[in-house]
Structure formats: C-alpha cells, structure tokens
Design brief:
Layout: H1 9-16
Length: about 15
C-alpha cells in the first residue's frame, strides 16, 4: 500500500508479494 522503501522494503516486500 504505502511506499516500503521508506521503512522496511524487505518486510513489506514479503507481505505485499
């Protein structure tokens, strides 16, 4: 949803993908 590059791209990537 939001930009993962701002916080934890790795964590967000795993959740989003």
């Amino acid at each position: 949803m939001d930009e993962p590059s701002t916080t934890q791209p790795m964590l967000y990537d795993a959740k989003v993908f």
